[in-house]
Specification:
alpha/beta, ornithine cyclodeaminase, domain 1, Rossmann fold, eight-stranded parallel beta sheet, globular
């Protein structure tokens, strides 16, 4: 729904954002939008009891500016509510005018999945067709759909610590990609060994993926950890991989999968081969046997690019100037 009361700008709710941002189209449009010169400081995070968080993520380019306000409420999962909720405000940065507000949870899910797919297009092997999803949360079906848009995925395996949640995640995945077979796996080590692409979206603080499980040619997509105390892969996995990140500044400040090993001297910062802007410009896999790894913590630059794409689609459909 698009609503407007006394304000002169529209509010785009989750359903409208989803309609304006089909994942396949977003994956195609995002690389060029990411090449725009954008200033995006590391997000501000305010922690509270029970794992609750408030995140503030501003960014600006020549044409647009925006800020995302997010709440993270882990307890909502048990209540059937979204863990991530919030608001995005988009401005015309030539005039300062407010262009739109948007529900941020759908925007964030689609941005995150599309960023992973853009990275996979460049880093996963062209014939990669077996996808393993590690985790059962809100992002999982979006990641499934996005990776299916980036590579010729023929099968999807889902692993979660809770079988009932894994079954529920599998049903949601099937709604997003009904053409692909989805199975639930109990043996994570065996599932990792069989996968061409491993995409993890968990809140783990101890690694769930071990480097000894990896085989040459795989692509690892780490989405869940966005704090220094979070880990989805162990030191051995980090040492074996050729690493790309969404942004160097954000990854070094917030990604426990990298910041921890760097601080302990396990790896050096120089092992980071590139960032999302380099992938958007065409960087990618060097040889078939390398293990590639993309680590995202979430960047406001990608939020701004995604919000501007959504607004341009809205403006076009309503005969307005974007």
């Amino acid at each position: 729904m698009v609503s407007s009361t006394t304000q002169s700008f529209p509010h785009l709710d989750n359903a409208t954002v989803a309609r304006l941002l089909p994942l396949a189209e977003l994956i195609d449009k995002l690389p060029s939008a990411l090449l725009a010169s954008t200033a995006a400081p590391v997000r501000q995070r305010v922690d509270a009891s029970g794992g609750r968080e408030l995140l503030v993520m501003p960014a600006l380019s020549d044409a647009y500016a925006g800020v995302k306000l997010l709440t993270i409420m882990p307890g909502n999962a048990e209540l059937g509510l979204g863990v991530i909720q919030g608001l995005y405000v988009l401005f015309d940065f030539r005039s300062g005018k407010t262009l739109a507000t948007m529900d941020a949870d759908e925007l964030t899910a689609r941005r995150t999945a599309a960023v992973s797919a853009v990275a996979a297009r460049h880093l996963a092997q062209p014939g990669a067709n077996r996808l393993l999803l590690v985790g059962t949360g809100h992002l999982i079906p979006y990641l499934a759909e996005a990776h299916c848009g980036a590579r010729p995925i023929m099968s999807i395996a889902v692993w979660g610590r809770n079988t009932a949640k894994a079954e529920a995640a599998a049903r949601r995945i099937s709604q997003h990609v009904p053409q692909v077979a989805v199975t639930i796996v109990a043996d994570l080590r065996a599932a990792v060994a069989e996968a061409d692409i491993v995409s993890a979206a968990t809140r783990a603080t101890d690694p769930v993926i071990l480097g000894d499980w990896l085989r040459p040619g795989q692509h690892i997509d780490l989405v869940g950890g966005y704090r220094p105390d979070m880990r989805e892969i162990d030191d051995a996995g980090i040492r074996r991989a050729r690493i790309f990140v969404d942004t160097r500044e954000g990854a070094l400040a917030e990604a426990g999968d990298l910041a921890g090993p760097i601080a302990r001297g396990v790896i050096d910062v120089s092992v980071i081969a590139g960032d999302l802007s380099m992938l958007a410009a065409g960087a990618g896999r060097l040889h078939p046997d390398e293990i590639s790894l993309f680590k995202s913590v979430g960047t406001a630059a990608a939020d701004l690019a995604t919000a501007s794409i959504a607004f341009q689609a809205f403006a076009s459909s309503h005969g307005r100037s974007s």
